[in-house]
Amino acid sequence: MHSDILKEIKAVLSAYPEIPKGKNLEYERIPHGHINHSYKLETDSKCLFIQRLNVNIFPNVAAMCNQIEQVTQHLACYYQKNNLPYEAVNFYKTFSNQIFYQTGRNFYRICDYKSALVAHQLPTNNEMVLSAGEAFAHFAKGLIDLPVADAFFPIRRFHDLAFRYQQLQEAKQNSNQATALLGLFQICDKLFDLLKPVLRYLEEGNLPSRWVHNDTKLNNLLFDKQLDARCVVDLDTVMPGSLIFDIGDALRTMGSSLEEDDSELDKLHINKSAIDSFLQGYVSVIGEHMTSEEKEMIPYSGIYMSAIMGYRFLTDFLSGNRYYRVRYPNHNLDRARNQLTLAVILSEDIGKVK
Ligand code: GN1
Ligand code: MG
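Above: inputs. Below: predicted complex with magnesium ion.
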């Protein structure tokens, strides 16, 4: 297994003119991320980050990667023009000038491993969260003048709550575990009712379609040693959507006391000051471009994204864990319970779900 991976990685590296063939090659699996496989590679001259893309989830790798390239180039110009302290991800190109390489059924992508920067699973302090808010807002602001009309959608209806709810209902009908999870389904239903205003605004076109990241978890940002955010990573799901998705996804990770799969739910609470810090940073950067409807929906955003994650994890659990990578049989169920509980706690500011 080990030597198979090494052999394949060597073949991949030889497709890139800027990566010299060295004698030594060490790799280390990076455990985070539920979809792609990521490795840190040490060659004689470079430290690289290489990903094997999950083609079951991203079947059109070429369209996705071309779009990522367009987005990163646009961002790099924006950062530079405005003298901002961020770097855009810069992928290596193959001899055929692509940012991905196909070998057999596998697709790979390579960029530098930014050794000076670190991803965090939970925030250390609120300054860090404020910095995250600014960085994700600059990501969206930098792309505000990139037209959305011809965008490629790597995953259809990705953050469509009604679609995710419908998928959950289908999984529930086909499962023999539904009765045991009645309480959890009741929470799903109540959250769906509570979130109808967001769905209505989305359906009526009241929330503008903008380029958003769609996976603004804290660990998709790299920070320097001073805990300043420096680089937005994991760009596979970048596509048009609502700012509410990015704000909500950030809040569900930065505003929670627990990681998303922690099952000790009695320790789950909301960090209100972290939520305030994120919003302060985010709105200070992009607030002047936000519509009043977008601002109005901010209090729903964290609930919306936690509910979507709860639905998706529960759907996957009921369907035999085919989408997310799991470490134990009930992993997706633990994730679902965590995210649905988080949505309920977040909703206590807006209206009672329990
Ligand atoms: C997946 O693979 P990763 O961790 O970057 C998922 C996101 C979820 C996230 C939950 C394409 O992202 O939507 O928020 O898990 N990505 C896809 O942690 O489904
Ligand atoms: Mg991701």
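The longest helix spans residues 292-318.
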